[in-house]
Design goal:
By secondary structure, this protein is of the alpha+beta class. It is built from 5 helices and 9 strands, in the order ααααβββββαββββ. A hairpin with a 2-residue loop joins strand 6 and strand 7.
């Protein structure tokens, strides 16, 4: 019995479909003959085939692998060679013997050619070694000759260089004798001090034409104050007048080739005292037996006297030639003097 609405199979006495819930009407009883026919038709239907395609493919693949493995094993064991050799012997020993003999002859020819090639290579290698040995001996002899030539040439160059140095030194001496040394006043920052050293002073040799003595004060205004390395202290001349013609001097700790002399002119204890005191304008530097005169601006700056050539000297003397007048005092002052040379 089947549901007329959804087609579900039901019990014969069911009144409602247990799947869709439809109410069932009384179904007519099937015809016995029709039932028998239906059963016969169902029996005549062929049974469903099982899918064996995958297993068949796997079995064929295994068989192919086994066949390939057997063939490779037979090849390694020489079964095919033995079979071919037997076949050749069966077809006749004449043809087989002839082919084998020709192959053997070809192998012998190849071996002979290889031996001859090795002999030629050995001879060539030996000849090359002999030539290298000869070349090495010739090269050593050539190197020895070249070294001797280079030593001789180098000795000649050194001799020529020595002669040139002597000639240059003589020329420099001649130039120094012929051309007078000049001195130029500059700002100290415009001068190069490369390779120069500051000259040392012998304190006991410091001297001055005069200096101011302040009663009840510990301030030292002597000539040494211009060489003591302290810009606060200064030499202040003590004669009447503006200080024209007054001088200071000192000896060095050794002889120097002097190239630069720097000066800090005026009283640098303060800007106020700088204005109140006389400041040297023109100075004469006596150094190495020569006199150099220079004029400087009225500024609280360090100035330099640069020589065109080094001047050999062991002491220095500075004389005041002119001054910038102060607003209160008439004492010419020099705060610091430094000498630079070789």
């Amino acid at each position: 019995m089947f549901c007329p609405k959804c087609g579900a199979q039901l019990k014969d006495d069911a009144k409602f479909c247990n799947k869709c819930g439809a109410q069932l009407q009384a179904m007519p009883q099937p015809n016995p003959r029709q039932q028998a026919y239906n059963q016969q038709s169902a029996a005549m239907q062929p049974p469903a085939r099982k899918k064996k395609g995958l297993w068949v493919v796997l079995i064929l693949l295994v068989l192919l692998l086994l066949a390939a493995g057997g063939a490779y094993a037979a090849y390694q064991m020489g079964v095919f060679d033995s079979f071919l050799s037997s076949s050749d012997e069966g077809r006749g020993s004449g043809g087989g013997s002839s082919r084998k003999s020709k192959d053997d002859e070809d192998d012998e020819d190849e071996d002979k050619e290889e031996d001859e090639e090795e002999d030629r290579e050995g001879k060539d290698k030996k000849g090359e070694e002999d030539r290298e040995s000869e070349d090495g001996e010739e090269g050593d002899a050539k190197d020895s000759r070249e070294e001797g030539a280079e030593e001789s040439e180098d000795q000649g160059r050194r001799t020529r260089v020595s002669d040139m140095e002597e000639t240059t030194a003589a020329a420099e001496t001649t130039v120094a004798m012929d051309i007078p040394v000049t001195a130029t006043a500059k700002y100290a920052s415009q001068v190069s001090y490369a390779g120069l050293s500051r000259a040392g002073y012998v304190r006991d040799t410091a001297y001055g034409s005069s200096n101011v003595v302040q009663k009840g004060s510990k301030i030292d205004n002597s000539a040494w104050s211009a060489f003591d390395g302290d810009s606060i202290t200064s030499w202040q001349e003590g004669r009447d007048g503006d200080g024209i013609g007054e001088f200071i001097g000192i000896s060095f700790d050794r002889t120097y080739q002097v190239k630069v002399v720097t000066v800090l002119l005026g009283n640098h204890r303060s800007a106020e005292l700088y204005v109140k005191n006389n400041t040297p304008r023109t100075l004469t530097f006596q150094i190495g037996g020569q006199d150099f005169q220079a004029t400087f601006p009225n500024e609280m700056q360090k100035f330099a006297l640069e020589f065109s050539q080094p001047v050999e000297a062991s002491d220095i003397r500075i004389t005041v030639n002119d001054v910038y007048k102060g607003t209160v005092y008439a004492d010419a002052s020099i705060a610091e003097v430094e000498v630079y040379g070789y």
